[in-house]
Amino acid sequence: MGSNSLYGPLDPAPDAGYPDAPPRMGFFTDTSVCIGCKACEVACKEWNGVPDDGFDLLGSSYDNTGGLSANSWRHVAFIEQPAVDALAAAGTTGPQFLGMPGKDLPGRTLDAPRTDFRWLMMSNVCKHCTHAGCLDVCPTGALFRTEFGTVVVQEDICNGCGYCVPACPYGVIDRREDDGRAWKCTLCYDRIGDGLTPACAQACPTQSIQYGELDELRGRARERVERLRGQGVTEARLYGHDPEDGVGGDGAFFLLLDEPEVYGLPPDPVVSTRDLPAMWKRAGLAGLAMAAAVAVSFLGGRS
Amino acid sequence: MSPKGSRGDRPMVPPADFRSYYGRPVVRPAVWTHDVAAYLFTGGLAAGSALLAAGGDATGRPALRRAGRTTALGALLASTYFLVADLGRPERFHHMLRVAKPTSPMSMGTWILSAFGAAAGVSAVAEAAPLLPAPVGRLITPLGTAGQYAAAATAPALATYTAVLLSGTATPSWHAAYPDLPFVFAGSALASGAGVGLLGAPVSQAGPARRMAVLGAALELYGAHRVETSKGILSEPYTQGRPGRLLRAGRALTALGVAGALLGRRSRVVSGLSGLSLLAASLATRFGIFEGGMASARDPKYTVVPQRERLARRAAAD
């Protein structure tokens, strides 16, 4: 283990023991061009043989998937909210349902009343963290770091202990109910080894999901966010791109148009194993207190 | 509303203002059932009983030794059952033994429990030495003694690693409690072990169990007080609803058990009842801590608000 093995900037594959690791691969999901078509959700299910997660109308938006789960490894979030100017004017925050949009094409009916709102759409996925809580706490070795720096579950090893589920700071990995094992995005480990693009990125019609070498994607993302800001989209920001953040940077990072929590993402995730040495120290102290209490109990009295 | 409002009877904490995705949780609550909460109790009970047995044997109190050894084995078997039953693939329980992984508290716990289990198992079997053929009995008695001390040496780790197990997650109120949770669990384990002594030994031998009850209760109450008051908004889940009721019940039962242990010195019945009270207290406390964490994971408020506060503090520092 290196000095940053639990926390801090790190190239995960060499740290995990791959001496000649290929470049770290990842996703850059640019939500500013997402059209909410859910082709990524479908392609992922098709390629990976992910089971149906039930026909469940959630009634809150066009999103009837709800979130990432054992049976949804890509999830398209839909947020309907007043446009940024209206938001600022009203001084309100939070998603609001403003009715269905008109059936007509925008601009076809001149002077038609238009509500001033926008849709945010975002295809969420496993972040393939540099410091992956799920991987750190897995007691069987079922979760492992691949040579591409991604995090994958071995389904023949996982015994369904479920520890990875609460360990993920993003709430991604999940145990499948009828199967008992933990499942999540593999970044199409069975495709990228053959030089193919992961199914979701391949299917994305707008290049909202971009796959490639993480270093290159980070550069591309920086340019994109600058260009958007130059065009007046001042709320554009990157999420998960920073190797100095609480998980050492994400292998799958995002360009967002609002605060992360609006999309269901944690605003400042930290891998819980960062505090592992401190946690064991406190446990050791409590253990010593316990031993001392027993010694006092048996040696300290008359009866 | 101003914090110094005109009503002025107490400082008003403004309602937490935060945004979320349709109120859905950000982190995922553990998929564990109450089997795991029950294991927190039985694991602690096994540890406390093993310590009781070792102390009893070392100071010539055979009733404490006997009660401690047998309860340790019973609690250990129950623990193993709860842990295996809660797996998604119970038939693969042995996959835990493929690796020893320092970054995984569950892996460390597996090995602690295995070491403890072997030692406590031998020492409990040795209790049956008089019933076994003489040569076997002569062989197993010293083994049992060795096992008893080995189990006692492992017991503090067994009692406290479960705190690291819960804290090592992104479950907000479990993680925030990491400095104090080991003390809750250590104290709770001692108190339940003391309860076994009070139940299983005549009053003439139960003196150490009474002192163990007092010290265990003190540790547990101190830790629980810290968990319930010093974590800001993340203390809240431990004080509300079912977890709040369970933790309050645990506190009341602990107080009752300690009072009975101290006042019932001459009565086997009062001692036994206080022992039962301490065991029930430990059970309630473990379920309260378990459910408090689960509640904190289900409400996005407990993930978003503390992280926002952390970002604001960092921005203010820059």
UniProtKB/TrEMBL annotation, chain B:
Keywords: Cell membrane, Membrane, Transmembrane, Transmembrane helix. Pfam families: NrfD. GO terms for cellular component: plasma membrane. The chain crosses the membrane at residues 36-55, 67-88, 108-129, 149-171, 183-203. It is found in: Cell membrane. Gene3D superfamilies: Formate dehydrogenase/DMSO reductase domain. InterPro entries: Electron_transfer_protein (IPR052049), NrfD-like (IPR005614). The keyword Secreted does not apply. The keyword Membrane applies. Belongs to the NrfD family. This is Polysulfide reductase NrfD. It comes from Actinoplanes aureus. The gene is nrfD.
